[in-house]
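All the exercises in this workshop are built on plain-text protein records. There is nothing in a record beyond a sequence line and a structure line. A learned vocabulary of local backbone shapes supplies the integers on the structure line. The question running through the whole workshop is how a given chain folds. Here is such a record, shown just as it appears in the course material:

***
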Amino acid sequence: MGFRIIAISLAAALPVAVYAAPAAPACSAAPVLPPELTGWSRDASSKTIYAYGDDLGADWSPLGAARTELPLHRFESLRYGIAPERKPDVHKFGGMIPIEVKKAGRLVVALDAGAWIDLVQGGGVVKSVKHGHGPACSGIRKMVEFDVTQGRYQLQIVNAPAASIHAMAVLRD
């Protein structure tokens, strides 16, 4: 019995290794953004669509080249234009917003949080050509690029972690 007490006492006296997560990189007050992303520093707000249909008319304000706060909705209140390629999580959020493309090029969609996005036109999904993250310390969590032609598109946001998200859409020549 004395042996057990000694063993416990010795174990309690041994140093304990503590794991510390790596420190986040120090950020300057103003991150350097490439020219096509400078609109990320401008704030705007808009609204998202609950259901596909007449709301995609020309009078619906499209997502543009400024960081825009978008309110999102619970999955059960949404009716997407086409079924999202990623299965919606009933505990997460989504919405739809049009994007107006004036000329052919590379469309870059930036988000401040992780979420699935589909770009829809003519009843089909436009395949993405590149995925990545924004510049360090910019607040851009996700960037997805699409090759597009002139026209009106719909951005479907699926499985966002919160009831709002910041998004931006810019055309890179």
